[in-house]
Design brief:
Strand content: 15-25%
Order of helices and strands: HEEHEEHEHEEEEHHHEHEHEEHEHHH
CATH class of the largest domain: Alpha Beta
Bound molecules: adenosine-5'-diphosphate
Number of strands: 14
Shape: elongated
Distance between the termini: 55 Å
Number of helices: 13
């Protein structure tokens, strides 16, 4: 017998809310996904209810798990709207919102620093940069993990050359995969790409929170999070609900991408996550035949942008055939040619990121950015 949504809701009939009502009838259940005996869903809550709703979440998970045919059940709590925390100063007209909704997400035991790698839009090389940055941090002698939260296009399995499903250890915890000395978890290991594509914001956040907290990361110096591209509500809530020590923004030199990058910077500043810096990817073209380097997109834009907004500039990565080919082959350049010039670029970026983290984020005061 195959499982249907109705079976799940039936099972949740018996789960009671703090006011005595049934969870199934409350209309709080969102985005029930059933896939090969695996059930993922979320309970919509107000941010302030997180404490009282945790036993409800656990009971819901147990009730689903007890259904015949269910191999795994993951139930998350999700606050649809970003919770407003602390006093919000009134924003002047035209200014970015001032609510300092500082990330108060609980830290991850054993993980010293979590950093987000983000971009204002897709296709700028965020995943390639995240992967090589993680490997370069590992090359510095650090213990590193990679969480691929790019739910709409998870690339880390391909970049790291990893396939298969992570092992379940205990009722809830997953064991991360490991390659080139980096522990890797990706939504791509868990669900079909098309499944993730149809998830609404709260489901995305719930799935990412679970990948963060229900994976046996062990002791890590840095966990690199490859964020979903863009600066929408889902990304903002994620930035808020993840205990981030800092963010790296990846941009191409084109103007449009820089405007998007600026939004990325503003988004993290809004939730008080320090900007560790901007990386300019595909900054110039390195000819594979003659080695000549041409700034085909008018390079240097990201450096100027970083200066303008007083955030650190981390480095320039050229548009380079070897970087692309090795990425597509699952042999990222920092792992396959660790002593080469391209790996050195990523190692320099990693050293700056680590130094930023050691200083507690950006040393410079972050100014407020106004989005027109
Ligand atoms: P995003 O995560 O921003 O969507 P990806 O990292 O998946 O972008 O990169 C998009 C494409 O660009 C991939 O095919 C990747 O191999 C290629 N790419 C990324 N950075 C570089 C680079 N510096 N040189 C050459 N190709 C690159």
């Amino acid at each position: 017998m195959s499982l249907a949504q109705a079976d799940i809701l039936n099972a949740l009939e018996k789960v009671k809310l703090p006011d005595g009502g049934s969870l199934a009838a409350s209309g709080r259940m969102t985005g029930i996904v059933i896939n090969d005996g695996k059930v993922i869903c979320a309970i919509g809550i107000e941010a302030a209810e997180a404490g009282v709703m945790e036993p409800v979440r656990a009971a819901a998970e147990a009730a689903i798990r007890a259904l015949p045919g269910v191999k795994q059940a993951l139930v998350g709590l999700t606050a649809d709207k970003a919770p407003s925390r602390g006093a919000a100063a009134p924003a002047p007209a035209g200014a970015a919102p001032q609510a300092r909704a500082t990330s108060k997400a609980a830290s991850l035991p054993g993980v010293k620093h979590i950093i987000a790698v983000a971009s204002g839009k897709g296709g700028v090389g965020k995943s390639t940069t995240s992967c090589n940055l993680a490997l370069a941090l590992a090359a510095l002698g650090l213990k590193v993990g990679m969480l691929d939260a790019d739910i709409y296009g998870p690339s880390q399995p391909r970049l790291f050359g990893l396939r298969g499903k992570p092992k379940l250890i205990g009722p809830r915890m997953l064991e991360p995969m490991e390659r080139y000395g980096v522990k890797v978890m990706s939504i791509g290991f868990l669900v079909e790409e098309e499944t993730a594509m149809i998830w609404r914001g709260p489901m995305v956040i719930s799935a990412i929170t679970q990948m963060l907290r229900e994976v046996a990361w062990g002791e890590l110096d840095v966990l690199v999070v490859d964020m979903p591209p863009g600066t929408g509500d889902a990304q903002l809530t994620m930035a808020q609900q993840t205990p981030l020590a800092g963010a790296v923004i990846v941009s191409t030199p084109q103007d449009l991408a820089l405007i998007d990058a600026r939004r990325g910077v503003a988004m993290f500043q809004k939730v008080d996550v320090p900007i560790l810096g901007i990386v300019e990817n595909m900054s110039s073209f390195c000819c594979p035949n003659c080695g000549h380097v041409s700034p085909i997109f008018g390079h240097g834009g990201a450096r100027a942008e970083a200066d303008k907004y007083h955030v650190p500039f981390l480095g320039e990565v050229p548009l380079d055939m070897q970087i692309r080919e090795t990425s597509d082959d699952g042999r990222p350049i920092v792992a396959s040619d660790p002593d080469g010039p391209r790996a050195q670029i990523y190692k320099d970026i990693a050293a700056k990121v680590w130094s930023g983290l050691s200083q507690g984020g950006t040393a410079r005061a972050a100014p407020r950015i106004v989005i027109e």
